[in-house]
């Protein structure tokens, strides 16, 4: 464990707590893409089921349980408790355009052609693009509540911090994971436009608004 | 071994 990865994980943890806080305090999931949240459940379940046969550390297991549990809970909140505040008519991204290519890529690029490793690859590829329905929704509505942008910023910073972690690990441990690194760079890249508006507007106290 | 990816990352 190094500082970049620890801060990345904490940023990921924080993003989910911010999202839960937003939903609970406003009693609304307005502005949140159900499709993106459902994709995260698929990502976490596909990747973290190794919880049952591979023990790394208490930290590792606790985080995996938290990510699976919290993402399922968020889906429950959106689908049941705050269902009237969820507007599917603006959440129109076609997720089959993400699922099918990720499934194909995971069959081609994996570290071992076995179900668990293919699922791992699939989760890495899917995570890298899972934010697209959310960003697409943001693009459509053109604006977002500040708290929603804090959630997205924390989520983007998480994977961005994994990049220096991989560079650090390459030089200190000699390990390199080309699948995770490639997908991680793509994932971070998808946030660049968002980061630009977030850092130049929201953090200066202005409203998050995209140019028309 | 191609399966030697670091398995401690989340």
UniProtKB/TrEMBL annotation, chain A:
User: Where is this protein chiefly located?
Assistant: endoplasmic reticulum
Example GO CC term: the record gives: endoplasmic reticulum membrane
Q: Which domain of life is it from?
A: Eukaryota
According to its UniProt entry, one GO biological process term is: protein transport
Q: Which PROSITE patterns match?
A: ER_LUMEN_RECEPTOR_2
Q: Where in the cell is it found?
A: Endoplasmic reticulum membrane
Single GO MF annotation? ER retention sequence binding
Which InterPro entries does this one have? ER_ret_rcpt
Q: Which UniProt keywords apply?
A: Endoplasmic reticulum, ER-Golgi transport, Membrane, Protein transport, Receptor, Transmembrane, Transmembrane helix, Transport
Q: What family is this? A: Belongs to the ERD2 family.
Q: What's the protein name?
A: ER lumen protein-retaining receptor
Please tell me the species this chain comes from. Pleurotus ostreatus
């Amino acid at each position: 464990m190094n500082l970049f990865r620890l801060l990345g994980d904490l940023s990921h943890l924080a993003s989910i707590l911010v999202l839960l806080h937003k939903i609970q305090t406003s009693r609304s999931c307005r502005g949140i893409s159900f499709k993106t949240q459902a994709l995260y459940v698929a990502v976490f379940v596909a990747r973290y089921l190794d919880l049952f046969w591979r023990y790394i550390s208490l930290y590792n297991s606790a985080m995996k349980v938290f990510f699976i549990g919290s993402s399922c809970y968020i889906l429950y909140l959106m689908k049941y408790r705050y269902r009237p505040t969820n507007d599917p008519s603006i959440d129109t991204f076609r997720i089959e355009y993400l699922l099918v290519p990720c499934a194909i890529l995971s069959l081609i690029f994996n570290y071992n052609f076995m179900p668990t490793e293919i699922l791992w690859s699939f989760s890495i590829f899917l995570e890298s693009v899972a934010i697209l329905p959310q960003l697409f929704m943001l693009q459509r509505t053109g604006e977002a509540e500040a708290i929603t942008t804090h959630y997205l910023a924390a989520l983007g910073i998480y994977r961005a911090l994994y990049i220096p972690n991989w560079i650090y690990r390459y030089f200190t441990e000699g390990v390199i994971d080309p699948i995770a690194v490639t997908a991680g760079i793509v994932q971070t890249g998808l946030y660049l436009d968002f980061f630009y508006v977030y850092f130049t507007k929201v953090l200066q106290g202005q409203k998050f608004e995209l140019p028309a | 071994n191609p399966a030697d990816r670091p398995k401690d990352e989340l």
